[in-house]
Amino acid sequence: QQEKEDLQGKLKLREHLSQTAGKSEATRGPSKNIDLQMKQLQCKLKNSNTEITKQSTTIKSLKKQVQEKEERIRELQAKISHLERDLTMKRHLIEDLRSHLKANQENEKTSNETLESLERKVKALAEDKKTSIDSLKQRFNVAVKEKSHYELMYHKAKDELEKKDLKLTKLESKMIETECAVADLETAASQQLHGLAKQSAQALETLQKELLLASDKIEEFKTFVKTLTRELQQSIQELRTKIKLAKKMGGMKACKKGLSQESLQLAASILNVSTTDLCEILQEGDDEEAAKTKMEFEKDKEWLQHIQKLLEAQFPFASYLIDAILEKLNEKKKLVEEYSSLIKHTV
């Protein structure tokens, strides 16, 4: 544009000079040179205009390409944000699983402490019961000894019945009182034993209910873990299938790029198939890919069996279970990254 302005200024100057030169006949020779220079400058001006038109067309094309690149960048940024949201949700899910596992462990610990406390109480009650029985036995032995002693005194007093009639009456009354006391002691002991047995039965029933509740909670947790692992394994299988399809689509595009269109059409006409079917035939028969798929299936099967063994193992197994699930989540993350890369290259 600056060159165009300079040329226009020079043209105006030349026109002014030519008008001035036309007035004088003595300057006819130099005016021809001026006309020639004016024509040259006009040609340069036309060339400059043509070049400016080309440059503006190129600028418009570059702007269009820049807009397309910006649109592609926005699409990729949207995909990245979507993947980041998925990753955040998975992290929250892992944190929830950890909190549930910790709560279950705390509940189990509380149940064990309650069970130990009940066992100590039952043991204490059994010891108290044994002590009471021993005490009653001792009292009974004492009563029996007293009864024997009174009987002996009775036999001795019988020989002296006439002399000691009053004493015999007193001894008989004491013997009756002793027997009543022994009967009362036996009745009290029987009632106490019955009460202790009833309390023990109630304590055992409460303990059984708590154990059943803890068992139900553990079974619910196992069902949750099994469902989670199955869903995770199915998600990974779907990702693998998508990756294989993306690779296959890439292979078909590479096949179409590697062979000319005429060669593809000629081979397709000979085999009596379409060019797309011909590329799929060229991509099939990959024994290595089939072996890899089989090995991945076996690994998933072994992983599920490992999770089942961990759930059936004795406590503690939380750390091993978390490691196994995190290993599968990392594998899923790698597959997602690989699938995103394949989709990007395919598009």
Can you give a write-up of this model?
- This is CNTLN protein.
- The protein has 347 residues and is mainly α.
- It has a domain at 218-345.
- The protein is built from seven helices and no strands.
- The protein has helices at 2-22, 28-159, 165-258, 261-271, 275-283, 287-312, 318-346.
- α1 (2-22) packs antiparallel against α2 (28-159) and α3 packs parallel to α7.
- It starts with a helix and ends with a helix.
- The model has no long low-confidence stretch (mean pLDDT 78).
Mean pLDDT: 78
H/E topology pattern:
HHHHHHH
Low-confidence stretches: none
Number of helices: 7
C-alpha Rg, in Å? 53 Å
The fraction of residues assigned to DSSP E strands is under 5%
* E-strand count: 0
* Shape, principal axes of CA atoms: rod-shaped
Sheet/helix structural class: mainly alpha
* Biggest sheet architecture: none
